[in-house]
């Protein structure tokens, strides 16, 4: 296609604007203004119930965590931590890749429901990327960030980061939430992602009525293909004997929102 | 053709957004730089001084980083910044509604980047041409100016400009057409166009 002469001139005359670069002082000013408000505001919004639960757990564990994590993480130091979510990831973060939940991310990941973000293959951005759980093509990814933190990626979009294991709290499971999709998929599913303690072998998603959705073979994480129209209530964590070891409400999630038809 | 500074980003913007959500301060700096740069270039094409553009760019970057939690698609960070830039710039332009002559148009300040015009172009003629264009731009309605800046500074598509201006693609097409038509009718720009086209 031949470029429009007017376009060429417009681009030429505005070239200096395209060449503008920020000064160091401008960046420093921005960071100084952002930092006081950045805690909590930079993270994705989560339902109030989960946020409150997580915040309470973090606050309660802050002092304990400082003591535990002031020395290098070792499995011995974390004895008994297998009952909490953190225990499922502590060995891995401590340097024992063989103890990591899930499986390594493959270069040829089969048919994800959402495209695998390319930065997961950038070893500087995402160390030791893994697939912690998957269902229906939806995958829960985890990786160690550049600063050593633990990161989770829900499907192709929404991400959560934890600076250390202590931030995961004591609970045997955390429902991280639905992914970035705004609507149920063609099968009427909304992927619900979560992480779980090593002792958790199965999870069940209960509904307002009818049988729960059960997923077995949990290894550090889970993906539940929730039916929003059935009114999901809570995720129940079960150990190898089928005993309930934890539960978390999910009824505060606006499930009706996922039933609205996409615009356009 | 000058290098597009956006292409020099070594890591994907989505990766930086994820890193920032994970508490990575380097990501905060990278995104602050990216946000300031994008906004600076847009505002810089329309405002009369770098100081004015800088004020807006910093406000935009602060808003973008503080509201990052509302950004559902990390890949859409640039679009997010453009949208915030439009809001801030529009506000500023409306305050300047009373037309003023551009004293030192920002588009003239940097001579380092040479635009793609014929090599034998007289530099003085080029500066005069830019002066004329920026002055002519200040006479356009704010939304037309923004649409033109987003197209010719950032090379955004109609769809992307529509997202930034919060309007339909058809409206973008109309804004760009009207803006170009007005500029084409400017007697001084006609002379310049003839000169630069070699016609």
Folded structure, characterized:
The complex is a heterodimer of chains A (264) and B (199). Chain A has 264 residues and is an alpha+beta fold. Chain A has helices spanning 5-13, 15-18, 24-38, 48-68, 85-93, and strands at residues 103-104, 127-135, 138-144, 150-154, 158-162, 173-178, 190-196, 202-207, 213-216, 221-226, 232-238, 244-249. In chain A, 22% of the residues lie in helices and 27% in strands. In chain A, the strands form 3 sheets. Chain A has a 5-stranded antiparallel β-sheet with strand order 1-2-3-4-5, with no helix packed on it. In chain A, strand 4 (150-154) and strand 5 form a beta hairpin. Chain B is mainly alpha-helical. Helix content of chain B is 68%, strand content 0%. The longest helix of chain B has 22 residues, at 25-46. Chain B is elongated, with a radius of gyration of 18 Å. The interface between A and B is large, with 56 and 73 residues.
The order of strands across the largest sheet of chain A is 1-2-3-4-5
Helix content of chain A: 10-25%
Low-confidence stretches of chain B: 1-9, 98-118
Q: Do you know the CATH topology of the largest domain in chain B?
A: Rna Polymerase Sigma Factor, Chain: A
Largest interface: A-B, 56 and 73 residues
Gyration radius of chain A (Cα, Å) is: 22 Å
What is the tally of beta strands of chain B? 0
- Classified by CATH, the class of the largest domain in chain B is Mainly Alpha
Low-confidence runs of chain A: 37-82
Beta strand count of chain A: 12
Indicate the multimeric state. heterodimer
Rough outline of chain B: elongated
Order of helices and strands of chain B: HHHHHHHHHH
Number of domains of chain B: 2
Query: For the record, what is the CATH homologous superfamily label of the largest domain in chain B?
Result: RNA polymerase sigma factor, region 2, helix turn helix motif
The whole-number mean of residue pLDDT values of chain B reads 75
Outline of chain A, from the CA principal axes?
globular
């Amino acid at each position: 296609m031949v470029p429009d002469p007017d376009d060429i001139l417009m681009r030429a005359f505005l070239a200096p604007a395209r060449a503008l670069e920020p000064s160091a002082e401008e960046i420093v000013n921005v960071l100084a203004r952002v930092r006081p408000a950045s805690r909590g505001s930079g993270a994705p919004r989560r339902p109030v119930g989960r946020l409150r639960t997580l915040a309470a757990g973090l606050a309660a564990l802050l002092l304990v965590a400082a003591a535990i994590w002031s020395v290098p993480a070792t499995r011995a130091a974390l004895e008994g931590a297998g009952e909490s979510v953190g225990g499922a990831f502590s060995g891995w973060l401590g340097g024992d890749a063989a103890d990591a939940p899930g499986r390594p991310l493959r270069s040829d990941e089969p048919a994800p429901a959402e495209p695998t973000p390319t930065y997961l293959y950038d070893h500087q951005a995402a160390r030791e990327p893994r697939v912690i759980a998957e269902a229906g093509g939806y995958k829960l990814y985890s990786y160690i960030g550049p600063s050593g933190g633990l990161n989770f990626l829900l499907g192709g979009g929404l991400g959560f980061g934890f600076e250390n294991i202590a931030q995961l709290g004591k609970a045997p499971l955390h429902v991280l939430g639905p992914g970035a999709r705004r609507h149920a998929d063609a099968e009427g599913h909304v992927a619900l992602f979560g992480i779980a303690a090593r002792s958790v072998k199965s999870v069940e998603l209960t509904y307002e009525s009818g049988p729960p959705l059960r997923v077995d073979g949990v290894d550090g994480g889970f993906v539940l293909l929730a039916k929003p129209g059935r009114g999901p209530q809570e995720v129940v964590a079960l150990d190898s004997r089928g005993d309930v070891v934890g539960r978390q409400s999910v009824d505060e999630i606006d499930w009706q929102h996922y039933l609205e038809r996409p615009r356009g | 053709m000058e290098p597009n500074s956006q292409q020099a980003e070594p890591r994907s913007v989505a990766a930086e957004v994820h890193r920032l959500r994970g508490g990575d301060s380097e990501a905060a700096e990278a995104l602050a730089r990216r946000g300031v740069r994008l906004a600076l270039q847009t505002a810089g094409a329309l405002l009369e001084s770098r100081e004015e553009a800088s004020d807006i760019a910093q406000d935009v970057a602060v808003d973008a980083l503080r509201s990052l939690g509302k950004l559902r698609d990390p890949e859409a960070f640039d679009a997010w910044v453009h949208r915030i830039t439009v809001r801030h710039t529009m506000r500023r332009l409306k305050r300047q509604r009373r037309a003023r002559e551009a004293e030192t148009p920002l588009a003239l300040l940097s001579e380092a980047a040479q635009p793609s015009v014929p090599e034998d172009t007289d530099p003085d003629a080029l500066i005069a041409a830019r002066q004329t264009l920026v002055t002519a731009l200040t006479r356009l309605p704010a939304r037309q100016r923004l649409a033109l800046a987003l197209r010719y500074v950032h090379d955004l598509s109609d769809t992307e400009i529509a997202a930034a201006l919060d309007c339909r693609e058809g409206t973008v097409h109309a804004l760009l057409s009207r803006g170009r038509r007005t500029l084409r009718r400017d007697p001084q720009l006609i002379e310049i166009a003839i000169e630069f086209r070699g016609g």
